[in-house]
Each structure stands twice: as C-alpha cells, then as structure tokens.
Design brief:
InterPro entries: AB_hydrolase_1, AB_hydrolase_fold, AB_hydrolase_sf, Epox_hydrolase-like. By secondary structure, this protein is of the alpha/beta class. It has a single domain, classed as Rossmann fold (3-Layer(aba) Sandwich), CATH 3.40.50.1820. Helix content is 47%, strand content 18%. The chain is built from twelve helices and eight strands. An eight-stranded mixed beta sheet has the order 1-2-4-3-5-6-7-8, sandwiched between helices. Helix 2 crosses helix 3, helix 4 runs antiparallel to helix 8 and helix 5 packs antiparallel against helix 7. The radius of gyration is 17 Å and the shape is globular. The chain starts with a strand and ends with a helix.
C-alpha cells in the first residue's frame, strides 16, 4: 500500500504492475480491497493497476459533511498527477461507476477507456434524495453495523452468501469498517449528483458496461440504458451474481474485462 498527499487529503492506494494504467474505483461503502481479484489478475507487464481508497473510506482521509462526486473525481485526477500519469483506462462499480462518469465529464482527455459496473447514470429522484440524506443520518447515529447486516444479501446474492462465505465475509467486513462520517458524506454527495445520461452519448473511447444478473440495487435494465447511449459500448451480464460480480464471479468478470482491455490496447 502507498500513500499520497493530494487535493488536501492523504490517499491510500495500491499501485501494481508496469504497463498501461488501469484505475479501479470502489463503491460505497467499500474500499480498494474489493478489487483484489482484479489486481491479482491484471497487474503485471501489460497493465499497471491502481486502486485508490476514496476520501472517507479505507486508509484515506475522512472528511465529514458532504462529498460531491466532483470532489472524488478531482481526488483521482490529483493522484494521477502525483503519479505523473496522463491518460488511463478507468473503471468503477456502483458509486465508483458514477465517479468514473463524473471523471469523464470533467477530464475527458485523460480517459482511454471506461468500465461501468453495476451502476446507473440518471440523477437522483426526489424520493431517492430524501432516502440518501436519511441514511446518512442513520449511519452517523447507529454506525455501520446494522446497515451492513441489512444489505449484505443484496450486495451479494443470497445464494452466494451461503455458497461463498469468504466473499460474503469480505464484503461484510468492508461495510462494517467504513467510517460512518465518510460514508454519510458520500451519500449526501450522491443525492445531489447530476444526470449523466446525455453525456454518455459523447463518450468517444471504448466502454464496457457490466451488471450482475441478480443485482437488485442496479438492475440489468440500468446497464442496458447506459449501453444504448454509449456509442460502440459492450454489455456483459454476469450470471450467478448480484451487485458485486467482480467478487462473486471473478473469473467471468475478469474474462469480460480482459476482452475489453485487449480492445483498448496497450501504450500509444
């Protein structure tokens, strides 16, 4: 694990491999360890895999209040500046996917390829805004434990909670370990996020959209919505997975990502 002082905070991150940079952005309320199977698979001579902890999570600085997606995106850009990296392939899951869409909106010239996994592009509804603010208050009041137990069987498909106890345990540990102040700040920021649907039509780089077949948080229909709007995008639906296909079915997820990275290609 490495650390960098960027954008007024300290960011913890993994940086492995020596090839074309691939940046992987975790979701809520997780940390960079959710990408362990992908670091193990792809980091090497062809791909340099960088997985940061977002501010408020893991080993990065916790900043209470509200963290807009634009701030998360700026943190990633600042980390890339620190690493002297210009263009990258960048991907994210769930909230991480929304941060990646924001990164593309703000820094399109730095993006060589997009991975959008188990995420959605639309702005929040009014009911959704209220629910996110209420959940932020609840996390500060109760801590992460009750929420983590409540949503585990939605993050990971119920049949995988039983069949893959190590995966379920890892997901539960990440959620329990997330700082409530950081998670609450992210929820408030997501409540105010913009609509990315129109900006997707302007994506001019290769894109891969992935969804777990049994994802209740971001159903396959959300992935199909993005796939239709991104010119030339590829859609992969991972069978036997819910919201965390990269952990629930890593071989299938990695196969789709490998095919995509082959299409993106190596250094220019």
């Amino acid at each position: 694990m490495s650390r960098a002082a960027v954008n007024g905070i300290t960011v913890g991150y993994d940086d492995r491999g020596a090839g074309t940079p691939l940046v992987l952005v975790h979701g809520h309320p997780f940390d960079r360890t959710m990408w362990a199977p992908q670091l193990a698979e792809f980091a090497g001579p062809a791909w340099r895999v960088i997985a940061p902890d977002l501010r408020g999570y893991g080993e990065s600085t916790v900043v209470p209040g509200t963290t807009p997606l634009s701030v998360f995106a700026a943190d990633i850009a600042a980390l890339l500046d620190h690493l002297r990296l210009d263009q990258v392939v960048i991907g994210g899951l769930s909230m991480g996917g929304q941060i990646v869409m924001e990164f593309h909106r703000l820094f399109p010239g730095r993006v060589r390829g997009l991975l959008l996994a188990d995420t959605f592009a639309q702005a929040e509804t009014e009911d959704g805004r209220r629910a996110r603010y209420a959940m932020a208050d609840r996390l500060l009041r109760e801590g992460m434990g009750p929420y983590a137990r409540e949503v585990l069987a939605t993050m990971v498909a119920p049949y995988n909670v039983a069949a893959l106890p190590e995966v379920a345990g890892h997901v539960l540990d990440m959620m329990r370990s997330a700082p409530p102040e950081g998670a609450a700040a992210a929820l408030r920021g997501r409540a105010e996020r913009p609509d990315y649907a129109d900006s997707l039509a302007g994506v001019a780089v290769p894109a891969l959209v992935v969804a777990g077949r049994d994802d209740a948080f971001t159903p396959v229909a959300d992935a199909e919505f993005m796939h239709r709007r991104i010119p030339g995008a590829t859609l992969t639906v991972v069978e036997g997975a819910a919201h965390m296909p990269n952990l629930e079915r890593p071989a299938d997820f990695n196969r789709a990502l490998h095919d995509f990275l082959t299409r993106v290609g190596g250094p220019r």
